[in-house]
Amino acid sequence: MSVDHYENFPVASVLLPKRLRRPIEAIYRFARGADDIADEGEAGDAQRLQALAVYGAELERIERGQRPADPAFNELAEVIGEWHLPLQLFRDLLAAFAQDVVKKRYADEAELLDYCRRSANPVGRLLVHLADRASDENLHRSDCICTALQLINFWQDIAIDWEKNRVYLPQSDLARFGIDEAQIAEQRWSAGWAALLDFQTERARRLLLEGAPLVHQLPGRMGWEIRLTVQGGLRILEKIRRVRGDVFRHRPLLGTSDWLLMSGRALFM
Has residue 7 been placed in a domain? Predict the structure, then answer.
C-alpha cells in the first residue's frame, strides 16, 4: 500500500497526539493505497476494480478474525481490533474509490453529497472514533467538515479533474448557471462561471461553519488539528472568491503567510 502522500494528510502534524499517529497512519495507508488504485497508473477499469476487490477481501478476513493474506494489511487489522473501528467506514471508502473508476458525472447535489458521504466522511468519523467522541452530534459535525473539504478540493481542482474526464460540478447546477462542459475544456472564465463558483463555495462554507463546533468537543491537540483544518478550508474558499472562481489560471494554494493567518484565526474559534 502506497505511503507517498503524507503532505496532504494530518499524520505528519506535530499537533496530533503521539498515541494516535500509528492508527491514523494505518488508516491513511489503506485510503491512499486504494485511492491510488482508482486514480494512478495506466490500468484499465476492470483491473482497477479487481485490485480494489482485493482490498475488500482483506476487510472480510479482518472481520472474520483471520490474518490478512497480504502482510501489508497486518497493521491495519491490529489497529481496527485495538481501537474497535467500524469496518463499514473502510468499505464506504472502497465503494467511493470504485465509483470514481466508473462514474464521471453527477446529476445533482444529492448524488454528489452521497459520493462525499463515502469518499470523505469515513475518514473524519474514524478520527472521531479514535478520540472516543463518537456521539451522533459529533459525527454529524465531522461529516459537515469532511464533505465541505471534499467539495473545496473539487472546486480547487476542476481543471485537474477535467484531464481525468471527471466533472464533479453537478449537471443541474451547470444548467442552472448556463455553463456547458466546453467552457471547462476551454478553461474559459465568464460572469456565469463566477456565479456558479460563488454558489458552490458558499455551500461549502456553510457546511464548514456548521461542523466547526466539533473543535470544542475533541480533546487537546486533536482539537487544534481540526481548527487548522477548518481554517485551511475557509482560506481556500476566500482565495477562490478573490479570483472570482477563475481556478483555471489561479489555482488556490496555501503559503506561509496563509498558515500564519490561519493559526491566528484558529485561536478565536
Answer: no
Q: What phi, psi does 6 have (nearest 5°)?
A: -60, -25
DSSP label at residue 267: T
Chunked into runs of 10 residues, the chain (269 residues) has average pLDDT values of 36 67 93 93 94 98 96 96 97 97 97 97 95 96 97 96 96 98 97 98 98 93 90 96 97 94 93
To 5 degrees, how large is the angle CA 82–CA 117–CA 88?
35
Which of 89, 217, 53 minimizes the C-alpha distance to 79? 89
Please check whether residues 75 and 26 belong to one and the same domain: yes
CA-based nearest residue to 168, from 116, 122, 203: 116
DSSP state, residue 66? P
- How many domains does the chain contain in total? 2
Predicted confidence at residue 142, as pLDDT, reads 97
Residues 240/254, Cβ–Cβ less than 8 Å: no
pLDDT at 269: 87
* Pair 22, 91 in one domain: yes
9 near 32, Cβ under 8 Å?
yes
Residues 173 and 143 grouped into a single domain: yes
Last residue of a domain, one of 102, 121, 149: 102
Stretch (H or E) spanning 139:
helix 136-156
Kindly state whether residue 3 falls inside one of the protein's structural domains.
no
Q: Spell out a b/e string for 32-60, using b for 16 or more CB atoms within 10 Å of the CB, else e.
A: bbbbbbbeeeeeeeeebbebbeebeebbe
**pLDDT confidence of residue 14:** 59
Q: So what's the pLDDT on residue 19?
A: 87
Range of the domain at 65: 14-102
Beta bridge partners of 167: 105
Q: Among 65, 80, 102, where does a domain finish?
A: 102
CA 93 – CA 114 distance, rounded (Å): 12
